[in-house]
């Protein structure tokens, strides 16, 4: 993983990842717990797939794995897919993730297409090893804050927020964000010249300042007024590794019970009913299992980033209701460092529930020896486009972490530790170095 293998001794990140809270093993995995069973699944036999690009030599002399080869010889993106299970998108110290991110930065882009749907332009990029990633181009500089009069649903998506969200999710030990890296792309050679998408190709032009620009097609911010321009033809963007194709691994989309109204005047039910969580707790899906606690994890993650735009969430269909929530689409985080959007924390303050593992990790990240802002800064230094966040955003995370812990402390005082903190640490006697508050 970036930031774990290649940091100096004395690294806070390495110390964090060696802490007992970050070394707990997964429950034993059976076939139902893995997204793919590589040994018996015909889809992973390239010969069975009869895809000429997978047999022998690739188009440009890049060797693709053949049917006789083991899964170790598969490209890193496929090894990432094979590693997905009921409990995590990727394991903590999996070298494949670091290798895959390096591929996204260095591999030649062989084709580009626009992603349909959405208010803003996103590109699907395919690489020489047949891996794919979602490219979100730079829309704002690091220093620009979201204007105070912008509604959350008309805010720009920020490429650096996507990158920072991946690092934050990993430091929180959720590992529910598909890996993301930054890349500097040549708009002429790596987008215009390799796209077969005529609609995209037609939107390229040269600006009065002699820069290459394009704007693509989408429902909101795709026009010459919102064109993306290079300097003269280089553009920054985030590349998020694709999840397995929906034909191979179906995902379910769920409505977030605390979704916003997406209306300029109307309020959502949770904003006007302080007992709204009691209603949610009685509905199927949230009345048993871990889903409500997973929503609390997502709430904390979003609050630390300042992301108000979580209307839906997804899970892998194969794992039913007992699985993690995938934290997709984080581009509207890190918009305002000068403002803490307390409404994002409403699910936590209404429900007063949290996993013990999450609570202990939050306490750990608030300690001076670790400090969330310092861990994020160290982790983000590994990205090609570093620095990813300016200091005020890093400091805002420390401030917000204290606010989360205060909400939980108030809950515990009001309702009692055992009614608030759900013990998910099945390993008895785990020495976490962080005493539970009683």
UniProtKB/TrEMBL annotation:
Its cofactor is Mn(2+). ATP binds at residues 120, 136, 157, 240-243, 314, 329. PANTHER family: DENTIN MATRIX PROTEIN 4 PROTEIN FAM20, EXTRACELLULAR SERINE_THREONINE PROTEIN KINASE FAM20C. It is found in: Golgi apparatus. Pfam families: Fam20C. This is Extracellular serine/threonine protein kinase FAM20C-like. Residues 47-67 are annotated as: Disordered. Its main location: Golgi. The keyword tRNA-binding does not apply. Mn(2+) binds at residues 157, 329. InterPro entries: FAM20, FAM20_C. Belongs to the FAM20 family. GO terms for biological process: enamel mineralization. GO terms for cellular component: Golgi apparatus. It comes from Sinocyclocheilus rhinocerous. The active site is at 309. Keywords: ATP-binding, Disulfide bond, Glycoprotein, Golgi apparatus, Manganese, Metal-binding, Nucleotide-binding. One of its GO terms (molecular function) is ATP binding. Residues 204-421 form the FAM20 C-terminal domain.
